[in-house]
Amino acid sequence: MAELLSQSELDYPFKLLEYFNGFRLSKVIFSACELGVFDLLLKAPEPLSAQQVALQLNASEDGMERLLDALVGMEVLEVSPEDGTALYSSSDVANLYLARSSSKSLHDMIVYQSQTVYPLWSHLVDAVREGKNQNEKTFGLQPEELFKAVSEDEMLKFMGLMNSSWILDGHDIATAFNLSCFHKILDLGGCTGALAREMAKAYPASGVSVLDLPQVVEAARKHFPQDDDSVEFLSGDFFSGDVPPADLYVLARIVHDWPEEKCLSLLRKLHDACRPGGGVLLVEALLLESRRGPVTAQIFSLNMLVQMEGRERPPSGYTRLLSAAGFQDVQVCRTGKSYDAILALR
Predict the structure, then answer these.
(1) Known catalytic residue: 223?
(2) Helix (H) and strand (E) counts for the chain?
(3) Against a cut of 0.90, is the pTM above it?
(4) Active-site pick, 107, 171, 256, 271
(5) Tens digit of pLDDT for each residue in 91-119?
(6) Are 89 and 50 in contact (CB under 8 A)?
(7) How far apart are CA 58 and CA 35, in angstroms?
(8) What is d(CA 68, CA 87) in angstroms, rounded to the nearest whole number?
């Protein structure tokens, strides 16, 4: 397949040009979200002109018209001419995923990508040359400070990213395996509780809790509250402190952040704390053993180089870690979405 694709690209490099322009396409959506375009169009009772959108969002008419046209070309917005004026309206996809008021909104994820990840990726060449993350160069932060010493605004952006991730993928992760045999489930670093709530919905007979840093728990209760919440929040540091006993420990997008020895130490701690018959559920983007993809997971692995100290792995990488920590019977489920699930028993 790769050879055939390469041959067709010799005539005209459509795929390469698409890749070259990928960052521009991303920034179009990022900018529209940050400006409030999708929220405005969702609330508008009728389609709006570029002049009307620019006026309400305090932007230039020329710049806004170009942005709106690009969104139309990307099939994110709709346009219709009326008396020589282009009128813009939102699409169903934009209303569902890009407007802040939607229950499936990815707005917070997009803002985090734009304001945090995008600047870091401008130093990708340095990250590859140096083999280390670029937090200090970009933001003046050491990697261990990412979750502890950042401003409340930056922390809330990251929490919004995680919340969006599990609103989108949480159900597939919660149901990747039948977890009903685990009566007490503890989501370590569960952030806003979005994934834990999906697990609570899928397994109502199980008690589901989140353990995270005190400032994260406080922010989750304040900024991401839920009516009749069945998820319990606990404050603590699972790397340096004790871990409460549980039947199943969930580590969602945790192991990929850190160096192997730190991950192995944590997994050994969980093995010791785990109740007999219990286990651990890892949630990560799995690479193929062949190294041929998926490209999403490969890009995520580059992001771990740029932003943190870890990496994405194929199933064999996680099996090796889990086995070294004392776990056994490792099972893998590829969801077909952004994140996959790995279950191992004590």
Answers:
(1) no
(2) 17, 10
(3) yes
(4) 256
(5) 999 999 999 999 999 999 999 999 999 99
(6) no
(7) 9
(8) 10
